[in-house]
Amino acid sequence: xxxxxxxxxxxxxxxxxxxxxxxxxxxxxxxxxxxxxxxxxxxxxxxxxxxxxxxxxxxxxxxxxxxxxxxxxxxxxxxxxxxxxxxxxxxxxxxxxxxxxxxxxxxxxxxxxxxxxxxxxxxxxxxxxxxxxxxxxxxxxxxxxxxxxxxxxxxxxxxxxxxxxxxxxxxxxxxxxxxxxxxxxxxxxxxxxxxxxxxxxxxxxxxxxxxxxxxxxxxxxxxxxxxxxxxxxxxxxxxxxxxxxxxxxxxxxxxxx
Amino acid sequence: xxxxxxxxxxxxxxxxxxxxxxxxxxxxxxxxxxxxxxxxxxxxxxxxxxxxxxxxxxxxxxxxxxxxxxxxxxxxxxxxxxxxxxxxxxxxxxxxxxxxxxxxxxxxxxxxxxxxxxxxxxxxxxxxxxxxxxxxxxxxxxxxxxxxxxxxxxxxxxxxxxxxxxxxxxxxxxxxxxxxxxxxxxxxxxxxxxxxxxxxxxxxxxxxxxxxxxxxxxxxxxxxxxxxxxxxxxxxxxxxxxxxxxxxxxxxxxxxxxxxxxxxxxxxxxxxxxxxxxxxxxxxxxxxxxxxxxxxxxxxxxxxxxxxxxxxxxxxxxxxxxxxxxxxxxxxxxxxxxxxxxxxxxxxxxxxxxxxxxxxxxxxxxxxxxxxxxxxxxxxxxxxxxxxxxxxxxxxxxxxxxxxxxxxxxxxxxxxxxxxxxxxxxxxxxxxxxxxxxxxxxxxxxxxxxxxxxxxxxxxxxxxxxxxxxxxxxxxxxxxxxxxxxxxxxxxxxxxxxxxxxxxxxxxxxxxxxxxxxxxxxxxxxxxxxxxxxxxxxxxxxxxxxxxxxxxxxxxxxxxxxxxxxxxxxxxxxxxxxx
Lengths: 257, 579
What we know:
The complex is a heterodimer.
Chain A: H1 2-18, H2 26-41, H3 44-56, E1 59-60, H4 62-74, H5 78-91, H6 96-108, H7 120-130, H8 136-157, H9 164-190, E2 197-200, E3 204-208, E4 217-222, E5 226-233, E6 236-240, E7 246-250, E8 254-256
Antiparallel strand pairs in A: 2-5, 2-8, 3-4, 5-6, 6-7
Chain B: E1 7-12, E2 16-18, E3 22-30, E4 48-62, E5 65-78, E6 82-86, E7 90-93, E8 96-99, E9 103-108, E10 129-135, E11 139-141, E12 145-154, E13 157-165, E14 172-177, E15 183-187, E16 190-204, E17 208-212, E18 216-223, H1 231-236, H2 239-242, E19 244-251, E20 255-260, E21 271-284, E22 288-290, E23 295-305, E24 321-323, E25 327-335, E26 338-351, E27 355-359, E28 363-368, E29 373-378, E30 382-387, E31 422-423, H3 432-459, H4 461-484, H5 489-508, H6 517-526, H7 531-549, H8 559-578
Parallel strand pairs in B: 2-9, 11-20, 21-28, 22-30
Antiparallel strand pairs in B: 1-3, 3-5, 4-5, 6-9, 7-8, 10-12, 12-16, 13-18, 14-16, 15-16, 17-20, 18-19, 21-23, 23-26, 24-26, 25-26, 27-30, 28-29
Helix pairs in contact in B: 4-5, 4-8, 5-7, 5-8, 7-8
């Protein structure tokens, strides 16, 4: 019995040691710090390059996208700035700085679109997802699940006396919390309630009525405007503006968030 | 009305004038309402000087036909002797340009007639009706007052004088002054009625040469008719009584004013552009106040010059005061030098701290054109004793809070902490910790269940199973006893006793066969059952035994009562055993 437990603990420690969430990234963290230093010196081009190198290495984080967005904004590139802020918001929707900068840049764009009211259920989901900073939901879910396992194990193992009732209650509460948090994580991971979105990167883009060059122009949108992509057809994308207008845009003018 | 072809005719009021005499060139337009634009009077440079222009409309009716004519009258003064030709005048009427005939004019060097003093003129000449422009200085500094006066002189009865041309005052700040009434004046031995028709104080806004354009006046003069030879003609004519109405006009000369720049050297920092003279006084309405009580600080600047555009003084109020924007009041009057008067600034001050506070001396610099130098007007410092409000230590600032003002919008600074980087292409599902966290509790639960099972087996399945089964078996036997109740009392009591005995044996895990009370009581007491419960149990068993082997006729308790007691007993026993 004791031997089994010891083995189990050994396996857990070994696994955490070899594959932690940070995954040992001295180079990328160094690149990130390098980018920050360049940014502070005013070399925004260099900072953007350093941040992009981290991205290219296959890593991401809300802070990284946020800083890259700032560098693009300083260079006057509103489209990439919006794109990176939106990507940061995807990871950490509740981040105050990201929201502030996004609002500021949106105020400087050519297009001003009055958004439609969102369906209340989706708005509630947004609110719930935005409540959890990056990593917090993961840790909370893991904690609840571990507590649930511990309570259940103890109540099973102990003699049918004394604290059994309290243990059962704990197991129930943590079990429900685990299910809720796991659902949240799954929603984040799978992108439920988060449609495919993109940012216009071209200075000006024509939205046409059909996915071909012969389509009639319905409206033009400009750099930095966020659109929802409903479907794709070859190199065309059917976009929906925040105010509900629909048109087809050449996908080369867009960059998915 | 018959459509007439417009015609244009030019004529002189006289063909012969003396040198210095005046003559009028008339351009008459008949058959039209007027010219498309005013005709340009011919330039008679070297012959005569242009004096004034006027127009006259006449409507004539004869045989039901109305003919209308408009006459432009240009007055000149002959300058040189000789015979001249007045060139033709071009008039555009109804889209067509018509030319008048050139006219001959003879100028003799005989003196002008009718120049006797006192004698009323019979015709209106340039000496009878003119406008004189006068400035009190030809050279001024920027923003220094120059008084310009346009004065009408007339030797004829004038009605309806109106100004037709105003002098432009571009480059000046103009302040109109009152013109005064009619007076008499003597000029070159002639007596005139005279009145200022416009007076202005002008303040130049910048240096350079400035020209004030002429001022033009139109009026109607009433001319006494010269006595005719025929007295009857005089009697018949109304004009001998009222005189004839003649339109007259006059144009003043232009004025040249040179504006000097203000000197740069010696210009004080507090100079706000005022030129003239200035004095300053300062006062407060209360010298002793409590903190947060308003005080009125009054600054009065009085002097001459452009008081109305006086710049607000810069007063360095102590920080202990909350200062509200001043109320400005002007008290201006006209003087010989233009404007004079005072301007009062009333500041409401609220001291926010106690103590002896001093309002500093106010300094206003101005330029004195008389001395050609900058000078300072100074007030004395004003002291205000501010007492602390009740319950407050002196010197406690009681500044009110104000909203923080945003100066600009800017993006927030980059994040410099731990970036919390994670692999982009791999979700947490692929991370080892996820699986460890997922599997560890499952393994723990499985392990706990297994351990529990193993322990149960070691401790003996029998006792555990019996304990758990005891109540169920006992209930079954009690139910069977109830079914027997109406019949054989002996069987009923045997069944109840069996149920009780079996229950206790199962609960205590001892053999039911050969149940020994002393042994059972000891084991039960060890496991926490109270002695009273045991006594009740044994009493119930005794009762059952009695009823089985020596039943009392209708004695003892009823069957239902016994069943209830047995059930109660089992409950109590089980509860005490578990706690």
